[in-house]
């Protein structure tokens, strides 16, 4: 296995409101290795975007890191990025170590200046040579399949798909180690989605970015590029597994439900057809006791209502939080 | 590269201006004639006093005057004559100041209005936008709260009421500033320091009353817009890239300024009504004051003349603002290509 790039230890990130807290990320631990693509999947409102905010240290009130730590390898040694001030995060992390391709990449570029000017401003902010960075941007534009001359244009002169690629090119201009993409393809048509994924993988192959976190509810998209999958439900990780394993044999009942709800080209999927998980994700202000999935789970047992299952490794490379498997072991 | 679309844009604006100018002059022609009353009444009553009440002579004078002003002709003929004469720069003869030409009456008062309104509007715009942007940059601090509350209160004060309050306190109670006119009675406008200082003293209150009441609205608008822009996608993305806060604020400020420039163009037009009342309150010899006199005496040529000149200048201002807009917003300039 590769070396660890980022480690998240028992992180609890709540939206602290006046009287209540929304427990959007509640006790999450995992590692991000160098040179891997992690897909984070789950329904809307299960804490995916909060997780991306946590990883990128974009923690703004009312979101609060209540407990836990986040470490990232910066210049070969681990630093606790969760203790950095927002100023430090902006100065040391964003753009250089971590980059974010936002949910709405269409409007992500400053609309009333030419992109080349924007790159120059970026150079100024990071105290870099403007000309050198511009040359780098031209090269990066070529790498993502855009004519470097487009840099002299305004963002609105580009089509949606091109703009998306321009956003990636600019987002990765300082060679950040970790790229976080939060639903980047949801606004694109299928052809542009494909191009986008190709560009993303190409940047990783070239070593521009080391690791990618791809947050999506679209399993059909993420399965094309992810090495590992994190399945989130109600603020908790219910399963972490490699892509192959999870496709062959999803363990958690929620994962099964999620995968059964989309059409994938495997023959067994074609055989069994698609189904939906009844019910909706719970309210995160007051989540259900025990396993948070138990009200919707087809295999619910007494123990599920009382105790919370731990995330445990049940097979090599597969962790799951479900009592079905802890009994299997005992 | 950008010159050709820019030219096209300007041409399009120019044609548009021409059409609106014709429409506007038509309205200006019709409206005063819709007011009931005889525009010659006052002139004739003055004449009758001079002519020792000779009815024949007065009737003859009325006929001559009717022909002189063209009021005896059908409306359509009057209109065509007015438009063609106006295009040649001939705005006709004033009725109430007969036999003086309208143009000779209006031109001397225009500088007074321009000197008052142009700086006042611009200063209010600049101050308001600066304050609003400052409040947005330091939002939720005491600066923000102070600017917001003051702006809200100030923007709701009618400028003429503010003017009257000023006159009462600074003019009457404290006696610091003269209460009326643009310069002291009895002085003749000239280019000396003494006259300049005198005019400045007269200038302070009308100027301040317009600036203060207009500023608040700009500040509130700017604050809202900058806050909105700071929360927009490009601001967040820039932040994620480690762009300096100051730069992001500059982006937001720039993009918020665009709608404010449209607002400025509109207010350059809209301030006319404001100037009218301010000039009446302060007895200030501007176009508003002259227009007020023309309206009360139903002086058709004068009303028309003032409006023709004012409409032309407002459109000119709008045209310049449009041009500026095309320069600073590429989306406007390049969007015309498609």
UniProtKB/TrEMBL annotation, chain A:
It holds the Pfam family oligo_HPY. Keywords: ATP-binding, Nucleotide-binding, Transport. Residues 6-259 form the ABC transporter domain. SMART domains: AAA. Coiled coil: none annotated. It comes from the Bacteria. GO terms for molecular function: ATP binding; ATP hydrolysis activity. GO terms for biological process: peptide transport. PANTHER family: MALTOSE ABC TRANSPORTER, ATP-BINDING PROTEIN, OLIGOPEPTIDE/DIPEPTIDE ABC TRANSPORTER, ATPASE SUBUNIT. This is Peptide ABC transporter ATPase.
From TrEMBL, chain B:
It is found in: Cell membrane. Residues 110-321 form the ABC transmembrane type-1 domain. Its main location: membrane. The chain crosses the membrane at residues 14-35, 109-137, 158-176, 203-221, 257-282, 302-328. It is a multi-pass membrane protein. Coiled coil: none annotated. Keywords: Cell membrane, Membrane, Transmembrane, Transmembrane helix, Transport. GO terms for cellular component: plasma membrane. InterPro entries: BPD_transp_1_N, MetI-like, MetI-like_sf. The keyword Nuclease does not apply. One of its GO terms (biological process) is transmembrane transport. It comes from the Bacteria. Belongs to the binding-protein-dependent transport system permease family. This is Peptide ABC transporter permease. The lineage of its organism: Bacteria, Thermotogati, Thermotogota, Thermotogae, Thermotogales.
């Amino acid at each position: 296995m590769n070396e660890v790039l980022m480690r998240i230890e028992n992180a609890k990130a709540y939206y602290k409101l006046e009287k209540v807290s929304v427990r959007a990320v509640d006790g999450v631990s995992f590692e991000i290795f160098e040179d891997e693509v992690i897909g984070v999947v789950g329904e809307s409102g299960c804490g995916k975007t909060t997780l991306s905010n946590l990883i990128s240290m974009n923690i703004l009130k009312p979101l609060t890191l209540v407990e836990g730590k986040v470490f990232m390898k910066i210049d070969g040694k681990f630093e606790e990025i969760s203790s950095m001030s927002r100023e430090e995060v902006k100065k040391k992390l964003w753009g250089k170590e971590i980059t974010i391709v936002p949910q709405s990449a269409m409007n992500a570029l400053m609309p009333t200046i030419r992109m080349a000017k924007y790159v120059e401003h970026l150079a100024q902010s990071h105290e870099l040579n403007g000309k050198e960075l511009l040359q780098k941007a031209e090269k990066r534009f070529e790498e993502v399949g855009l004519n470097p001359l487009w840099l002299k244009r305004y963002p609105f002169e580009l089509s949606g798909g091109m703009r998306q690629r321009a956003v990636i090119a600019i987002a990765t201009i300082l060679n950040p180690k970790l790229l976080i993409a939060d639903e980047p393809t949801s606004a694109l048509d299928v052809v542009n989605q494909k191009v986008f994924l190709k560009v993303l993988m190409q940047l990783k192959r070239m070593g521009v970015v080391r690791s990618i976190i791809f947050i999506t509810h679209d399993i059909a998209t993420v399965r094309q590029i992810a090495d590992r999958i994190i399945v989130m439900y109600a603020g908790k990780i219910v399963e972490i597994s490699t892509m192959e394993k999870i496709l062959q044999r999803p363990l958690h009942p929620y994962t099964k439900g999620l995968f059964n709800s989309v059409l994938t080209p495997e023959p067994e999927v074609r055989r069994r057809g698609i189904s939906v998980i009844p019910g909706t994700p719970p309210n995160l202000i007051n989540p259900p006791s025990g396993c948070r999935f138990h009200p919707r789970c087809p295999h619910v047992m007494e123990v599920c209502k009382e105790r919370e299952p731990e995330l445990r490794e049940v097979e090599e490379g597969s962790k799951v939080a479900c009592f079905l498997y802890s009994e299997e072991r005992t | 590269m950008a010159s050709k679309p820019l030219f096209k844009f300007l041409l399009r604006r120019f044609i548009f201006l021409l059409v609106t100018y014709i429409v506007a002059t038509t309205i200006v022609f019709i409206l005063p004639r819709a007011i009931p009353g005889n525009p010659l009444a006052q002139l004739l009553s003055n004449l009758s006093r001079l002519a020792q009440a000779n009815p024949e002579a007065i009737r003859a004078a009325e006929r001559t005057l009717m022909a002189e002003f063209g009021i005896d002709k059908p409306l359509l003929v009057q209109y065509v004559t007015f438009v063609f004469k106006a295009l040649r720069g001939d705005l006709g003869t004033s009725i109430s100041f007969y036999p003086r030409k309208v143009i000779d009456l209006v031109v001397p008062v225009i500088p007074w209005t321009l000197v008052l309104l142009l700086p006042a509007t611009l200063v209010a715009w600049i101050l308001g936008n600066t304050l609003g942007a400052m409040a947005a940059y330091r939002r939720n601090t005491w600066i923000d709260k102070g600017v917001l509350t003051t702006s809200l209160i100030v923007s709701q004060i009618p400028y003429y009421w503010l003017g009257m309050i000023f006159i009462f306190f600074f003019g009457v109670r404290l006696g610091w500033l003269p209460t009326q006119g643009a310069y002291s009675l009895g002085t003749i406008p000239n280019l000396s320091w003494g006259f300049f200082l005198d005019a400045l003293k007269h200038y302070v209150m009308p100027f301040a009353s317009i600036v203060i009441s207009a500023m608040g609205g700009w500040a509130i608008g700017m604050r809202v817009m900058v806050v909105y822009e700071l929360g927009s996608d490009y601001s967040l993305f820039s932040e994620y890239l480690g762009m300096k806060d100051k730069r992001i604020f500059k982006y937001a400020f720039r993009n918020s300024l665009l709608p404010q420039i449209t607002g400025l163009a509109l207010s350059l037009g809209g301030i006319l009504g404001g100037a009218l009342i301010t000039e009446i309150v302060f007895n200030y010899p501007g176009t508003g004051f002259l227009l007020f006199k023309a309206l009360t005496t139903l002086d058709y040529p004068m009303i028309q003349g003032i409006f023709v000149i004012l409409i032309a200048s407002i459109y000119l201002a709008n045209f310049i603002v449009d041009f500026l807009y095309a320069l600073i917003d590429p989306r406007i300039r390049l969007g015309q290509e498609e």
